[in-house]
């Protein structure tokens, strides 16, 4: 597989074209950012850890019947993925109250949410990724009702699979975001699933094992990511 031109550079990943028009290469960089890029830092080993973590999760989801864009690992920090036509929306599930939900509604952190919540956000950094609904998505052409319904179905399936997986490592899946795109007429999970895009707490202590460690200046960010992986059986060395 020949790596060619850089197509896009995000906050923590870069995307490259290849000699196959239907495949891209994702490069997981060591960069970390929060608060819409206002806080930035490079953390040693983070790209490698997230690349291997994402591969592990994507393979678990594929085994459970969730279609993903992931093909295979190429190197310590690179993965080969299918080229999707991405929807400009984010799907968010919350199992426990935390983060923006608490700020928005004035509820305390740590409340078990039963049933879990499902929310849609427009992927737009300049506007702060505002919350939207299915009607707005259809009106402005961001996603069809059928795409939103399928995205919701898959997002909740991911919740079912990963809540159990993380619980097996004595961890709570607090919340997470997913992005989807179209590939050959099928809605497929894209982007990544790493501790950068979800919240994970130790079940007993409720210690944070995710990117909140960076947001809140708690330190030990990559070490926490590796601890999550170790509990799931992921080998990073």
Automatic annotation (TrEMBL):
Q: Which GO terms describe its cellular component?
A: cytosol
The record's section on PROSITE patterns has: SAICAR_SYNTHETASE_1, SAICAR_SYNTHETASE_2
**Protein keywords:** ATP-binding, Ligase, Nucleotide-binding, Purine biosynthesis
Q: What is its EC number?
A: 6.3.2.6
Q: In which pathway does it act?
A: Purine metabolism; IMP biosynthesis via de novo pathway; 5-amino-1-(5-phospho-D-ribosyl)imidazole-4-carboxamide from 5-amino-1-(5-phospho-D-ribosyl)imidazole-4-carboxylate: step 1/2
Recorded superkingdom: Bacteria
What CDD domains does this protein's entry cite? SAICAR_synt_PurC
Q: Which Gene Ontology BP annotations are present?
A: 'de novo' IMP biosynthetic process; cobalamin biosynthetic process
Domain spans labelled SAICAR synthetase/ADE2 N-terminal: 6-231
**One Gene Ontology molecular-function label:** ATP binding
Say if the entry is tagged with keyword Translocase.
no
Q: Which reaction does it catalyse?
A: 5-amino-1-(5-phospho-D-ribosyl)imidazole-4-carboxylate + L-aspartate + ATP = (2S)-2-[5-amino-1-(5-phospho-beta-D-ribosyl)imidazole-4-carboxamido]succinate + ADP + phosphate + 2 H(+)
Pfam families named in the record: SAICAR_synt
Output the PANTHER family linked to this UniProt entry.
Answer: MULTIFUNCTIONAL PROTEIN ADE2 (PTHR43599), SI:DKEY-6E2.2 (PTHR43599:SF3)
* Family from the record: Belongs to the SAICAR synthetase family.
| Stored NCBIfam families | purC (TIGR00081)
Identification of the protein by name:
Phosphoribosylaminoimidazole-succinocarboxamide synthase
């Amino acid at each position: 597989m020949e790596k060619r031109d850089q197509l896009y550079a995000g906050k923590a990943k870069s995307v490259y074209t290849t000699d196959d028009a239907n495949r891209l290469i994702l490069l997981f960089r060591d960069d970390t950012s929060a608060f819409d890029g206002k806080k930035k830092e490079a953390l040693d080993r983070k790209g490698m850890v997230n690349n291997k973590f994402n591969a592990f999760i994507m393979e678990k989801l594929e085994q459970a019947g969730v279609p993903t864009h992931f093909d295979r690992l190429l190197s310590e920090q690179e993965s080969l993925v299918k080229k999707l036509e991405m929807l400009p929306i984010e799907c968010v599930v919350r199992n426990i109250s935390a983060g923006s939900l608490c700020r928005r509604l004035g509820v305390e952190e740590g409340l078990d949410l039963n049933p879990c919540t499902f929310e849609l956000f427009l992927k737009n950094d300049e506007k702060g990724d505002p919350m939207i609904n299915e009607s707005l998505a259809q009106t402005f052409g961001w996603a069809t009702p059928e795409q939103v319904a399928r995205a919701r179905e898959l997002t909740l399936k991911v919740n079912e699979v990963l809540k159990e997986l993380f619980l097996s490592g004595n961890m709570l899946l607090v919340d997470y975001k997913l992005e989807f795109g179209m590939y050959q007429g099928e809605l497929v999970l894209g982007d990544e699933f790493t501790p950068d895009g979800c919240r994970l707490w130790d079940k007993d202590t409720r210690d944070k094992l995710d990117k909140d460690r960076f947001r809140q200046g708690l330190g030990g960010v990559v070490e926490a990511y590796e601890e999550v992986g170790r509990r799931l059986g992921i080998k990073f060395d």
